[in-house]
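Backbone geometry:

***
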Amino acid sequence: LEPTGPPDRTYKVVFAGDAAVGKSCFIHRFCKGVFAVNLGSTLGVDFQVKTIRIDMKNIALQLWDTAGQERFRSMTTNYFRRSDGVILVYDTTNERSFLNVRHWMDSIEGLSTKKIPIYICGNKVDLREEATM
């Protein structure tokens, strides 16, 4: 069933991870249903909303897309404080992005005022022949 009416609950979910791991493409695909080939780098923070229906309730997911570049790190850290969860994305074809997962987790846990769930998502699994892991 498609959601109708206003949301019964809104959840703020922040996507984090190194630059170019596919956070924006993942969010775009989930929200719009199509894969966007040429999305540019996120500058600062962007977000999209996807409303889904679970147990006869409309749930709005605010999906916050943070920039992975170091120069935006101080700007994006505020978005973790009031989030309901974090999806930490790494690129399965880039070992460095996987090795940086621990750093991201430590940073997020240090910034949050409450214990929030952090999910780890390996992205670009369709490019296995290029995988370095």
